[in-house]
Amino acid sequence: MQPFRFFVSTNLVYGIDSALKLGEETKALGFSSVGVIVDQGVFEHPQVLKALNCLRDAGIRFDLYKNEAVEPTYDYLESFRALFAGKSYDCLVGIGGGSVLDLTKGIAVLLVNEGNALSFRGFPKLKNKPLPVIAIPTTAGTGSEVTYNAVFTDSKEKKKLGINSTMNFPIRAIIDPLMTINCPNKITVSSGSDALVHTLESYVHKNHTPLSRMHSKEAFRLIYNNLIKVLDAPADVQIRGNLALGAYLAGVALINAGSGPSGAFSYPLGAVYHVPHGYAGAVFLPYITELNVQKGYKDYAQLYDLIDGADLSLPVDEKNICFVQKIQQLMDKLEVPKSLSFYKLGPKDIEFMIEQYDVFKAAIAQNPIEIIKDDARRIMQALA
User: Fold this and answer.
1) Predicted pLDDT at 312
2) What pLDDT was estimated at residue 26?
3) What is the pTM of this model?
4) Rounded alpha-carbon distances, angstroms, from residue 363 to 31, 33, 118, 261
């Protein structure tokens, strides 16, 4: 066994009504003045209102801020920072999907470090440690509640870059399945697909470790077997809870292994063509998994075994073929578009996406099977 490292820096509080521990957790951490950033889509969510009441009951002073960006840009982050002028907090709380949690982590950096938002893009060396962040996800997907990444788009260059610093892990992740119970179908699909991309790419990644694979496998079991059922039972708390925990585990696996080609190609598809992030990665999954199997990759068999109803008696090669079919079946069930023309991409746009191979070659190279530019061309043309 090769030496490896593994880290998780976020304390998890999980369970039904765990959001009602917000006041208790905040007080136990010694915070008394809090800025709370809530997504506009859940601003009146009953569970969100209950969580805020718990802050009041605990004697925590807080101000409320509403996020209105679906996928925030650096410009939006900078303008949002202006809302905090003259305010002083010892903690920030983010309540919402991945974009809100990323926004909260971005603000946590800006409030204690000089410079405009764009100057922190990439992997900045921060002079001061960001404000502590408590993350409460209302979608099951990005894993932002357990990662240090905060994704933002450079509007001018049309690139998703982010503010990424290991100093910016949330100190608490509070995952309450009831927070996701009213999540609209398209957001459920997009966020769940994002988590699936995370778990599959971290699983096959060249830098995976025994511990990251443990998280990838359990994340896959929870995500696949529940994502295929959630649209038929959107109010099922057990299904929602399994998806939320699976997304968290996928996030842990992602930061310890890494992402790959589906994640890489999703960035220009989102930044340039405004395709929702989860869908932007999911459209490539069937093609990448099939390509890997065609070129001899066999480890999907272990994931196939985790699918409810899997035929465990099949030989390894057949399990891998069946796995590709299962991924496509899931994408069909979720109605993930099979063509980029759905998002109004034409021949010139397809050529642009093919050229992104050169931009993201380093990330694509982390796939266990070599993907050359001609492979990328065939995938993009199949999606045309």
Assistant:
1) 97
2) 97
3) 0.95
4) 39, 41, 23, 6
Is 4 part of a structural domain of the chain?
no
- Evaluate whether 12 touches 245 at the Cβ level (below 8 Å): no
CATH number at residue 232: 1.20.1090.10
| pLDDT beneath 50, residues of the chain | none
In a shared domain, residues 37 and 74: yes
Q: Name the domain boundary from 180, 202, 230.
A: 180
List CB contacts of 130: < 8 A, sequence separation 6 or more: 105, 108, 109, 111, 112, 113, 165, 167, 168
Tell me the torsion sign for CA atoms 233, 238, 242, 244.
positive
- What pLDDT was estimated at residue 270? 92
Determine the Cα angle at 309 with ends 307 and 310, to 5°: 60
Q: What is the CATH number of the domain that holds 84?
A: 3.40.50.1970
Q: What's the rounded Cα separation, in Å, for the pair 29 and 10? A: 13
pLDDT at position 2: 82
Per-residue pLDDT at 38: 98
| DSSP category for residue 171 | S
Residue 328 lies in a domain: yes
Spatial contact of 172 and 104, defined as CB atoms under 8 Å apart: no
Quote the pLDDT of residue 161: 87
Residues 217 and 355 in one domain: yes
End-to-end CA distance of the chain: 43
What order of strands is seen across the sheet that includes strand 61-67?
Answer: 11-14, 172-175, 133-137, 91-96, 33-39, 61-67
DSSP string over 52-74: HHHHHHTT-EEEEEEE--SS-BH
Domain boundary among 180, 200, 228: 180
| Residues 173 and 191 grouped into a single domain | no
Number of domains making up the chain = 2
DSSP assignment of 126-141, as one string?
-SSPPPPEEEEESSSS
Cβ atoms of residues 32 and 90 within 8 Å: yes
Residue numbers of the domain that contains 369: 185-383
